[in-house]
């Protein structure tokens, strides 16, 4: 084990790595509840998505842990699941089977990119300002979903959006759960999201908002309802080309950014470079493809991996520990399915994740109009149109146009002009 994971070389021990894995697990295990809850709104079977979520996470995490020896966790990404459910299925009116087909194709493209140097060219083509804007826009989108699920905000004929009835049990319980979770976060309590969900679940049970299942444990079942149900032909007949591109784009730079951040925190970068990057990116690409086959949205590297690094995790043994713990959750389907159906339990997690994602706007140079205005359009239109693809598309169109009108066409990477044209065709000709 020491030879494989290089424990002594990285100044760690088996016990330290296991503790780090446990720490990471409790900070990110909320996804096994939240992800099926979001995707089941498309008509997908909850149990099927739950099992697919766990299995896709295990596959991706084991590959990056054993193959690349990084203490990084792979799991279905927040933002990508919301894009899948609310933008692709609800927004475009396609079936979840077609949406899974788009994820599968994006996964295959990601695998191809991971094996070539073109991945770096693709990442370099996107200005850093727009990358930050996409993250912030998705954060606002996720927060909006959380607020709507809890009915803290509701539809309004006069104002489009209005505040809901805060006296409703589910709504004020969400607020209580949010306050509890934020306080735990302020005190730097490890696993605050998961602990906040547990506390809110207990309060929900006391208030009689749900009944405990007859059995907490059960054998995993239900995967057959989502596994291998993807519709690849429907992707092309529906013209979802920019949807594939959006899945690929967000997964690629979100995963790369997270991996670089965690690796730097663990002191694993060498002269600022990310060693074994091909295997690390391939782990996420395979996780995404596997997830599409089994029945879940794209996977991504989890920033929560940083909590395990803070606890001393330096090797892939941390990731392996998380995979083992994730496998154990498969036997808790009854309680997970009940909890996920209570918006008050899952909504605070969505709101807080959005809070973290929007913090990237501080990295945008707001004095540079050519850079900032397209970023602003992405940030504001993503939640308002309820479509990540639309927000990104408008920003990607405006950016080169402004540069061209300013005579700075050379500042735009040639590949980015192709991005702009593709989004223009999608938004103007194919979205109607």
From TrEMBL:
Family classification: Belongs to the nucleobase:cation symporter-2 (NCS2) (TC 2.A.40) family. Azg-like subfamily.
Native organism: Paenibacillus turicensis
Compartments it resides in: Cell membrane
InterPro entries, alphabetized: Azg-like (IPR045018), Azg-like_bact_archaea (IPR026033), NCS2 (IPR006043)
Record keywords: Cell membrane, Membrane, Transmembrane, Transmembrane helix, Transport
Name of the protein in question: AGZA family xanthine/uracil permease-like MFS transporter
Transmembrane segments: 12-34, 46-66, 73-92, 98-118, 130-150, 170-187, 192-212, 232-253, 316-336, 342-361, 373-402, 414-430
Membrane topology (UniProt): Multi-pass membrane protein
Glycosyltransferase as UniProt keyword: no
Name of a matching Pfam family: Xan_ur_permease
């Amino acid at each position: 084990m020491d030879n494989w994971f290089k424990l002594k070389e990285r100044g760690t021990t088996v016990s330290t790595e296991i503790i780090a894995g446990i720490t990471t697990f409790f900070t990110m295990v909320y996804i096994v509840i939240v992800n099926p809850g979001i995707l089941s709104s498309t008509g997908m079977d909850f149990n099927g998505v739950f099992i697919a979520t766990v299995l896709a996470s295990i596959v991706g995490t084991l590959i990056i842990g054993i193959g690349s020896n990084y203490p990084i966790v792979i799991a279905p990404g927040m933002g990508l699941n919301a894009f899948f459910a609310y933008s692709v299925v609800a927004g475009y009116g396609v079936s979840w089977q077609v949406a899974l087909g788009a994820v599968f194709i994006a996964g295959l493209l990601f695998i191809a990119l991971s094996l070539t140097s073109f991945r770096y060219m693709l990442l370099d083509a996107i200005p850093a300002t727009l990358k930050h804007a996409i993250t912030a826009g998705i954060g606002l989108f996720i927060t909006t979903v959380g607020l709507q699920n809890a009915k803290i905000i509701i539809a309004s004929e006069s104002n489009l959006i209005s505040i809901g009835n805060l006296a409703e049990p589910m709504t004020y319980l969400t607020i209580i759960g949010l306050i509890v979770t934020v306080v735990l976060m302020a005190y730097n309590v490890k696993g605050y999201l998961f602990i906040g969900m547990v506390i809110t679940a207990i309060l929900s049970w006391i208030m009689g908002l749900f009944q405990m299942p007859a059995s907490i444990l059960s054998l995993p079942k239900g995967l057959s309802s989502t596994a291998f149900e993807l519709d690849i032909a429907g992707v092309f007949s529906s013209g979802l080309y920019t949807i594939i591109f959006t899945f690929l784009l967000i997964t690629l730079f979100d995963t790369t950014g997270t991996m670089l951040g965690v690796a730097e925190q663990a002191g694993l970068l060498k002269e600022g470079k990310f060693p074994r990057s091909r295997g690390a990116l391939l782990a996420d690409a395979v996780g995404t493809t596997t997830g599409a086959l089994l029945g879940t949205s794209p996977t991504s590297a989890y920033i929560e991996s940083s909590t395990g690094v803070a606890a001393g995790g330096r090797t892939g043994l941390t990731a392996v520990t998380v995979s083992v713990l994730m496998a154990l959750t498969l036997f808790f389907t009854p309680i997970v399915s009940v909890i996920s159906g209570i918006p008050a339990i899952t909504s605070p997690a969505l709101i807080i994740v959005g809070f973290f994602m929007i913090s990237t706007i501080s990295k945008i140079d707001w004095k540079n109009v050519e850079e900032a205005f397209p970023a602003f359009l992405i940030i504001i239109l993503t939640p308002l149109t309820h479509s990540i693809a639309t927000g990104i598309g408008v920003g990607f169109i405006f950016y080169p146009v402004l540069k061209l009108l300013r005579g700075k066409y050379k500042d735009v990477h040639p590949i980015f002009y192709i991005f702009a044209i593709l989004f223009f065709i999608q938004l103007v000709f194919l979205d109607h």
